[in-house]
Design brief:
Blueprint (H helix, E strand, L loop, with lengths): L1 E8 L3 E8 L1 H4 L5 H12 L9 E6 L5 E6 L4 E2 H5 L6 H20 L2 E2 L8 E6 L2 E7 L6 E2 L19 H4 L6 H17 L9 H7 L1
Amino acid sequence: STIMAAWTYGLGRTAVVKVMHPELSRDPQVAPRFELEARAASQLNHPHIVTIYNHGALDDGTLFLAMEHCEGQSLEEALRQGPLGARRAAGVCLQMADALSEAHRRGVVHRDLKPSNIMLTEVGRRSDFVKVLDFGIAKLDGVSMTRTGTMIGTPQYMSPEQFRGEDLDGRSDLYSLGVMLFEMGHGRLPFVSQSLHGYMHKH
């Protein structure tokens, strides 16, 4: 649905530009969700949340989002090498919790927390500096973009209330964070299934 590319501009700062396909930009169901992502993410200003530099529409109506470029590896990539160990997992988890605290304070629920949306970067001499990415299906308090009963998220990390299609608050993100903490500590998910319904039942 989108194309992402690195782009260097202005004073040499590199950004990631997310561009929606033109036909989707004109879709009355999809385009408002992209706009909501931009609005939600651009309100967040926190060291552990990816920075949104700009968003809008091109002359032909194609929607774009320019965001901070983060070098490093995703938590998903790190987990392919096995469990992180207790100290490292706790450090990563605390940073994610700090980012979520700021987002929830501003009424933004991520709704799709998973290891591929967590970047582990280096800042100065500090490694494993967390950046939470992709508030692409975020929900601002008071703004609903889905019909009741619609599930959005990744089944391995979804809260029970998210499976039920209920209105969500920050506690749903904390559930997903708990699943990731388990995975960081054990090197595996707490629940494994071959189907969506299987994950729904187990969660």
